[in-house]
Amino acid sequence: xxxxxxxxxxxxxxxxxxxxxxxxxxxxxxxxxxxxxxxxxxxxxxxxxxxxxxxxxxxxxxxxxxxxxxxxxxxxxxxxxxxxxxxxxxxxxxxxxxxxxxxxxxxxxxxxxxxxxxxxxxxxxxxxxxxxxxxxxxxxxxxxxxxxxxxxxxxxxxxxxxxxxxxxxxxxxxxxxxxxxxxxxxxxxxxxxxxxxxxxxxxxx
Length: 205
Hints:
Blueprint: H1 2-20, E1 29-30, E2 33-34, E3 39-42, E4 47-50, E5 55-56, E6 60-65, E7 70-73, E8 84-91, E9 102-107, E10 111-114, E11 123-131, E12 134-146, H2 149-164, H3 178-204
Parallel strand pairs: 5-12, 6-12
Antiparallel strand pairs: 1-2, 3-4, 7-10, 8-9, 8-11, 11-12
C-alpha cells in the first residue's frame, strides 16, 4: 500500500512541474471588449507579463475618384476603453512598415476625411488607437485615386481647337472678303468633323 502512495505523490509532483513550464496564456481581443488582463505567463518570474504589441488588422482597399470626398473610419469589432487616443498616419506607398508613415493628426476622432481627393492623396493610411501609453490596435487603408475623366476631355478639346485652325480662330476675321470666307468653309467643316469624331471616340473609350 505504501509504495502505491509514493508513486501517486511523485506522479503529481512531476505533473505539476511539467505544467508550470508549459503554461502559455495568449493575449486576445474578445467581442465583449479589450482585455487588459491578457498576458503571457512567465515561468521564470512566476508572474504574468502584459502584452506589449498592438493588434494589426488586415488592410482595407479604398477606391476614390479625383475631386470626390473620401472617409475612413477607425472602427473595431470590440468595445474600447473610454480614455482612447487615435493617431492617423500616412505613407506614399502600399505598406505596413511603421517606419514609412508620417503622423498627420492625433486626437479622439476616429473619422479621417479628405474633402477633395487628389492624386497626391494616394497611398496607405494607418490609424492607431491608444489607451494611455498602450497601443491597442492598428488599422490600414489602401487608397487608390482614379483621375477624373471629364477634365481630360475638356483639355483635349481645347488643344484640338487651337491646333487645327490658323491662329486658333474658329471664325474668319470680320474684315475678310467673301472669297476668303468661302475658301475657309472647307477648313472649318473639316475641323468640325474632326472634333466630332474625336468626341465620339472619347465617349466610346
